[in-house]
Amino acid sequence: xxxxxxxxxxxxxxxxxxxxxxxxxxxxxxxxxxxxxxxxxxxxxxxxxxxxxxxxxxxxxxxxxxxxxxxxxxxxxxxxxxxxxxxxxxxxxxxxxxxxxxxxxxxxxxxxxxxxxxxxxxxxxxxxxxxxxxxxxxxxxxxxxxxxxxxxxxxxxxxxxxxxxxxxxxxxxxxxxxxxxxxxxxxxxxxxxxxxxxxxxxxxxxxxxxxxxxxxxxxxxxxxxxxxxxxxxxxxxxxxxxxxxxxxxxxxxxxxxxxxxxxxxxxxxxxxxxxxx
Length: 277
What we know:
The chain is an alpha/beta fold. The chain is 34% helix and 23% strand.
């Protein structure tokens, strides 16, 4: 059995609570989350010790201990990506296959630094939103998209990535500029690629699902509602990465995605103005 180690800012969060069972299930017991480290305890949540006891995972006293004992590593902190550079420093020196949870970083400079750290340590690594693996995207992939519209819900800072990941997966990372075209309560950004193709995100606060509409260069198109199976497909892809080392999200697309996120924070304060990527 291959042993996986979790490194997190705090352990009682949705990803840390749900990855372990799925990993063990879809690997047929070949892989198991055995070790974990949490940086802080958060009031109102389980302590790291309580989480470890509930999950049947050995709580380690340091990141070093997790890295030493584990075959593969997962750096979590999904809602605090500002912690990733610090939390990844030791894992990226191990050469062990490492997954870094979304959102990878808040700035392009940090994203580039993280990849440079991993490359310096010869550590295979990637980061992605699970929405890259939605069943519906396979119906679009392979055709050249002229315009892609995505729609979903959730907080802008945390959930924008779930619309951007399919955009860069399907259209690439050659992004020229973005513009904020939403309101205060309904965030929306317009994305222009270097070749003139466009994409748009729309975050309706009440939405629970993710939807897509793609127009191809010949004028035909496809509308896809309610993205499905993305979490299970994501876990299966993660297991394959641990087995084979096959990276599931290209570096260039991840850097482009983070560049869009960084620019979107500036654009939100200046609606209707183009911001270069």
